[in-house]
Amino acid sequence: MGINPRFYGWINEATLKTANHANFVNVRLTYLHLFWVQKSGFSARAGPGDRTQKEENMQKNKQRVMHLDMDAFFAAIEQRDNPALRHKPVIIGGPPGSRGVVSTCSYEARRYGAHSAMPLPTAKKLCPHAIFLPVNGAKYVHVSRRLMKILQRYSPQLEPVSVDEAFLNISGLARIYKSEKELGRKIKRDILDELQLTCTIGIASSKILAKLASGLNKPDGLNIIEDEEMERIVYPLPVRKLWGIGEATEKALARLGIKTIGNLACFPELKLKKVFGKNGPLMARAAAGKLDSPVHGLEELPAEKSVGHEHTFRNDTDDVEQIRAQLLLLVQRVGRRMRKRNVRGKTVTLKLRYENFETHTHRTSLNSYTNNEGQIFSLTEQLWRQIYNLKRKIRLIGVSVSHLVEREPAGLELPFRDEQLRIKADDLLLPTVDKIKDTYGENAIWRASGLLLKRE
Ligand code: DCP
Ligand code: MG
After folding, report:
1. pLDDT by residue (tens digit) across 122-150?
2. Residue 357: per-residue pLDDT
3. 294 or 260, greater pLDDT
């Protein structure tokens, strides 16, 4: 079976847009959201003690889920490709003096306290002898594709969660491979043989537990949690270990006296609902291992909700020409990605972050759907004029288009006639521009005003 291009669409986005690390978080949040709202398919559990675990797992239609997560993914690939880096602290994200953040780091660097999303200069302070490398997005996407192909050999029900992480529905596979442990070992061996990389696998009866299981055994682990072991292994863990519970929720739960997963699982759902709305009872069910959302196959992956790009200036700037040129560049990237994905959108959002980190987002909508960058840019410029405050310097700008559709609904009006002609001309031109970029690279052809972009 071929890999769904839609999936790789967002993998490319997630990885190639590496300057914007927050994007990974966004991808995760999107999936997490879907995860929580997936209410269907709660599984009814047989009471413990009635059957042996093996028999119970073989029960028809009972879901067994594998979660697989590569170890220190970007850093491990660099260590694999350059033996001089092996067993050394390696930090991926760019030069330590730059304003970016750590994308990931090798386990050797983690010992010094470095971690993903930490500012690079802080990582340098903690681990001065680390080797700092830039993010090589294209390389990681290539490895990710190969990884997903390996996993697909085992189960067509493969749901990627991020560039190096996926759920697999492995229900019934234990019979073919003797046991779940054997299956896990075999997959780990294939990945090691074919990609020379290690991963960690968690297996349980739901996605949330499988993810928790892998998280407990990193790196190079294989951890199976049976339902009977919930109370012994899972309940004593802090709530924070549960996928989707961040710092704020952890604090809110603590105010209710809920510290461990067991506390949460046993807490009255009605009380949780009062504080957290409909997510409250879902959290409790997840904690009790009863939130049994299905593993989606690649074909069923939800469509991307928006397409966006951001840029952080090397130095905060109030050079309007420079900002405009950068915006144009971002819009071109957005338009190109939309055309590649064959989607059009209706709402354009401009994001500005000032030097003091104050962030503003403003949006406006067309009455038609577009992936034409000329049209997107004129909306972006309108937004820019509305919100830009000349008194402060800008740190970051971003443009995104949302309300995406795959085909434009018929009968929508276009704006004024001049604008219509310009858009039509652009629509005729853009396929050729795309072909030139496909053949000669992204920088082979630019809009003239993009030439105003200064080298940073
Ligand atoms: N990533 C990123 N920015 C983040 C988090 C992750 O760019 N804030 C990238 C780099 C990681 C990759 O995504 O290599 C996978 O993310 P993981 O959270 O799985 O982290 P690692 O695979 O690096 O380490 P681990 O062994 O903890 O899974
Ligand atoms: Mg990983």
Report:
1. 999 999 999 999 999 889 989 998 999 99
2. 80
3. 260
Of 165, 180, 304, 373, the catalytic one is 165
Is 299 part of the annotated catalytic residue set? no
Q: What is the CATH number of the domain that holds 249?
A: 1.10.150.20
Helix (H), strand (E) counts: the chain: 17, 12
260, 331: one domain = no
**How far does the centroid of ligand 1 lie from the alpha carbon of residue 304, in Å?**
21
Alpha-carbon distances of 276 from 26, 34, 248, 290, 337, rounded to whole Å: 21, 17, 12, 18, 37
Same domain, 254 and 402: no
| CATH number of the domain within which 71 lies | 3.30.70.270
Q: Which of 198, 214, 231 is the last residue of a domain?
A: 231
Query: Do 192 and 225 sit in the same domain of this protein?
Result: yes
The total domain count for the chain is: 3
Ligand nearest to the CA of 26: 1
Most ligand 1 atoms within 8 A of CB, residue of 17, 101, 116 to mutate: 116
> Of all protein residues, whose CA lies closest to atom 23 belonging to ligand 1?
72
| 102 and 185 within one domain | yes
441 Ramachandran zone, left/alpha/beta (phi>0; psi -120 to 50):
left
Of the ligands numbered here, which is closest to the C-alpha atom of 136? 1
Q: Quick one: average pLDDT of 285-298? A: 82
CATH of the domain at 423: 3.30.1490.100
Contact predicate 337/431, CB 8 Å: no
116 and 251 within one domain: no
Quote the pTM value. Answer: 0.61
Pocket test for ligand 1, best of 80, 104, 148 (most atoms within 8 A of CB): 104
**What H or E segment, with its residue span, contains residue 362?**
strand 359-370
Instruction: Output the six-digit token pair for 366.
Output: 């067309």
Whether residues 178 and 78 share a domain: the answer is: yes
- Closest ligand 1 atom, CA of 92? 10
With a Cβ cut-off of 6 Å, ligand 1 is lined by: 21, 24, 69-74, 103-104, 116-117, 163-165, 218-219
3-state helix, strand, coil in the chain (%, to 5): 50, 20, 35
Same-domain check for residues 413 and 429: yes
Residues 150, 252: one domain?
no
Domain range for 251: 235-286
Helix 137-154 vs helix 73-81: crossing angle, to nearest 10: 100
Percent of the residues in the chain that have a pLDDT greater than 90, as a whole number? 51
Identify the domain boundary among 231, 247, 274.
231
Residue 326 DSSP code: H
